[in-house]
Amino acid sequence: MRRSLRSAPVALAVAALLLGVLPAQAQARSGSAPDRVTVGGRTFIADGRGRALQWRGFNLADKSGRGPDAFADIHESDLRDMSARGFNLARLAFFWDDLEPTPGHYDRGYLGRMRRILDWADRYHVKVVLDAHQDVYGPHFGSRGVPDWASRDDGLPFHPVPEDWFSEYFEPSVQAAFDHLYKDADLRAAHARMWMTVASALGGHPALLGYDLMNEPFAKFLEGEDLPAAAGRFEAGELTEMWNRLARAVRLVDRRSWVFVEPTVIVGLGVPTRLGRIDDPHAGYAPHFYETSMETGGDYDPDGTFIPAYEAAISDYPSRNRMPVIVGEWGGNPYVPHAGRFVTDMTAALDRFSSGWTWWQWCKGGGYCFLDGTGAVKPEARLLVQPYAPAVAGDPLGFAYDPATRTYTLTFRTRHGAEGPTLITVPRDTYPAGYRVTVEGGKAGWDGHGQTVTVDTRGKAGTTYKVTVAPKQP
After folding, report:
1. Nearest CA-CA partner of 59 in 400, 422, 396, 326
2. CA distance 102 to 149
3. Vertex 20: Cα angle to 46 and 318 (nearest 5)
4. Distance between CA atoms of residues 104 and 193, nearest Å
5. pTM exceeds 0.70 for this model
6. Per-residue three-class SS string for 193-232
7. What is the tens place of the pLDDT at every residue in 393-414?
8. Got the DSSP string for 438-461?
C-alpha cells in the first residue's frame, strides 16, 4: 500500500531543515557513552561498552527486481552464510525510484521488504548500512536511482554507451539532472523527505548501523573544467551542502544511527577530497576503492602505484574530522592472473587506513560476485575470509594478517571506559585444522569458541597487549 506523507508537520520540518534551522534536540548528541575511539589519527566507531569496532562484509544489491519483485534476489541464506564465514556488515542497496514512484507517495511494501532483510541481518548478528544507490542518475537514463519524475535534463540529448556505462555520467543531459537535484528547491525538499521517510520507518531497527546518503555522487562540469577541477569545486560546495542537508533531515527522526558520506570518484585516482566539514554528531566517511586498470578490464599490477597513491590521498580528510572510515565498495575480477595478489594487497591497505569495508558484492555468478554459479566461494575470493577483531576493549594500535603464514596479529592498549572482552573472529576456512593463540603483555586470559577468540585483559589501563593467532603446529 502507498500512503501520501504530505502532512503539515513533515512540510514544516522539511522547510526548517532547508533553511538550516533545526530544533536543538535534533542536533544534540544522544546518550553519554562515547560514540568513537580515535587512535593515532584513525577513528573507530565505539559500542556501548567503549570498545573500538571493526567491520567486514559485502554489498547486497538486486538491481533487476522492481515493484513487488524488489529485493527478490536477496535471501535469508545470504545473511546466514555471510555470518557463518565471520562477516558482520552488509551494505544494502535500495532505489529511490522504487520507494517513491510518484511524488510524495511511498511504497510501504518496499519499506517492509527492507525491514525483512534487516530482520534477517539481526538474526545472524550482521549490521546493515542502507545505501541510496544510483547508477547514471536513474531510470530516465536507463538505470536505477533517482525517480524519473525528479529527472530534469534541460532537453539535452543522451547517448547510451553500453560497453562503457560509466562514460554516460559525462553526457550533458546526465550532468544537468544532477545539477537540478542539487539546486532546485522542490527536488532538494523531495530528497530530504525521502530520507526522513526511510529513517522514520527503519531508524530504530537493532540491525541498522546507518545510512549511506547517496552512492557515487556526480556533478555538472563547467566550461573549461577537467575532472579534478570539477570534482574539487563540487565537493567543496554543493556536495558538502547536500550531505549536511540530508544529515539534518535524518536527525529529525533518527538521532542514533550513523550517516555515511562519500567523496566523488576522483579519490580513486589518488586525488584528495575537498569535502568540507559534515556537522553531524555521528558522521562517517565511506569512499570507494577500485583499481583503475581492473575497472577497464585489465589485470592488477603488483608493482603499480595505485594503492600507495590512494592511501596517501584518503586519510587526511577523515583524520582531520575524526570520522571513521568504512569503505563502501571495492572489488575486482577474481579470475585475472594477479587476482590473489590484488586481494591480499588491498586487504592489507584497508587494514592500514580504514576500520571496515564491504566488497562488491555478495552474489552468485560472474564478475565481482563472491560466489560462483554453484554457490561455492571463488578460489581467489576465498582470500577475503580473514581473521579480524570486531570489538577491541581499548585502543587498536595495529592489526594485520599475513596470508603466507596465515598469522593474524593485533596490538592494543587498554584504557578507562573500555569494558568487556576483545573479540577476534577466526574463520574456519582460514584454520581448518585449528589455531593457537598467544597473548603478550599484562595479565590476560583467552578462550577459543568455534570461530571467536575472546581475550579478557586484567591489567590496569594503559597496558599494551599483543595477540597472535596462527595455525596449530602439525
Report:
1. 326
2. 7
3. 35
4. 8
5. yes
6. HHHHHHHHHHCCCCCEEEEECCCCCCCCCCCCCCHHHHHH
7. 999 999 999 999 999 999 999 9
8. EEESSSEEEEEETTEEEEEE-SPT
